[in-house]
Amino acid sequence: MELAMSKINEDQAKPLAPLFLTTRSDQPDEEDQYHHDRTKYVHSQTKLILCCGFIASLTMLIAVTFIVLSLTVFHLHSPNITVDSISFNQRFDFVNGKVNTNQNTTVSVEISLHNPNPAMFKVKNVNVSFYHGESVVVGESIRRSETIPAKGTVKMNLTAEIVTTKLPASLPGLMEDLNGRGVDLKSSVEVKGIVKKMKIFKKTVHLQTDCYMKMTTNNFLTPTFQCF
């Protein structure tokens, strides 16, 4: 009994071991977690900036390429129109020195349309008008729907009827003019259409050329003319 009590007293007399607080190695502290999140955020922002920069550069490259192509390879030019000949199919009929208003005359105009583009030129209509003086229309003809291939040339023959009843009342002296200084007539050829490439590049075309003719008795059927 005494031995047991002695053992208990001895144990109670021993000092207690100091208590230390230790951290677990598998749980990172707050500072490490902050640096980890910060690094992840910076990497995400960098990737976003690089992605936006790539998209912006690609968009700019496409835009510049489109502009260069539209000004060079796909640049559309206006077609060219040339009047090759003007000829009357029959002479005016005169009765007592005046034009016979019961009989009209016809005139043919041959033109050439050249398409310099690498795309088809679709002609909507071609109109030829004849004037005596500045504003009196004495003949007109309209031709529609014509297609000119790329780099191609098409010839057209336009026929108009000169309506003698539309000639000015001052033309009783027409016969004397034909035998003398000549009679002035003006023809105007107008072409409307469109040139289209790949349904993206297109050009609306409006061509016009005016020809001035001098008719005399000697050259009535094939008058001399000059176009502008």
Automatic annotation (TrEMBL):
Signal peptide extent: none
SUPFAM superfamilies for this protein: LEA14-like (SSF117070)
Keyword terms of this UniProt record: Membrane, Transmembrane, Transmembrane helix
InterPro entries for the chain: Lea14-like_2, LEA_2
Membrane spanning residue stretches: 48-76
Keyword set includes Membrane: yes
Protein's UniProt keywords contain Membrane: yes
Gene3D superfamilies xref list: 2.60.40.1820
Domain Late embryogenesis abundant protein LEA-2 subgroup: 111-209
Protein name as it appears in the record: (thale cress) hypothetical protein
Protein species of origin: Arabidopsis thaliana (Mouse-ear cress)
Lineage: Eukaryota, Viridiplantae, Streptophyta, Embryophyta, Tracheophyta
